[in-house]
Amino acid sequence: MPVNLALGHVSNDFLIAALVIYSLSVVAFAGDFAFGRPRRADSAARGERARERAAALASVGAASGEGPQDGAAGPAGGQAAGGPAAVPDSMPEVAVPPLRAIRQAGPWVQVAMALSAAGVVAHTVAVVTRGLAVHRAPWGNMYEFVTALTCVAAIFFLFVMVRYRAWTLGVFVMGAVVVALGLTETLIYTAAGQLVPALQSYWLDIHVTAMTLATGIFFVAAVLGVVYLTAGRYHRRVAAGRAAPGNGIMRRLPSIEQIDRLTYRTIMFGFPVWTFGVIAGAIWADQAWGRYWGWDPVETWAFITWVLYAAYLHARATAGWRGRRAHYIQLLGFASLIFNILVVQVFIAGLHSYAGVS
Questions:
Q1: Which of 43, 141, 91 is nearest to 263 (CA)?
Q2: C-alpha R_g of the chain
């Protein structure tokens, strides 16, 4: 069927609209950092006092002393809860319905979440209309792939913000989505067109879909990892007397323990999807080229990426390699993934050289 160019232009219009809306959501998240502290701090302090009262009634929990080390740690892990001067946790795990929690978080968070949701809707419409325009899965070249994976990242993180009340991280993750989308739209835009012959298979819907989903999830994990390392470095500098305590941004972030757990859960969710994508790619390679694995450059780097994320999960389960070391490994895995997408597929000749970027 011929490509519907008019619908392709509609898709691009929705993508630009999503980019603008995401940018406004980042401004709103930043506004919450700048102007939303008093109300949020008061709300979080009330929740902290309620948790302290509940902990006092739980004799076993109080005796073990686990609370201050984990869920009750101060923002970015810098201060322990337990006194009136402790800074309240900005990502409390409380049994409050999501909509009520968003209302309690203040007007800046309400606006930011509404804009994020609107941006996700526009972004999803852009991806769907692109698929309708080309009559196939809308990830047949580099432009479509990055557009789709950023959509996955935005949808996934919107769920994370609602599920874990993690809107203080929204300025970083949504900001990264804006940067990625902006670069995609300006540097590698590709008009709607037919697939190259090598991709004209139903395995495109299986293999590339899995890789798109996993990459979008790993995108979120990478941003969280950078935030974790930055917050950890700041608190080490404070402990060593090389930085002044009380940084406004760091005080608003969740504890480093919570960021670590959130990153771990994100990668735990994405790793099986990436594994399935690699396996599906091997099956597709057997049907297309008569072998499951040929150490093509893209195949090799996909395997290296898999090994690095597997190493992160192993390191996360090993006491001596938790924390910074584990996050360095997962960021190295994401760097390997990005190198595969932006360098190997574009500049290195191989059976996967059909990124659509000239």
A1: 91
A2: 22
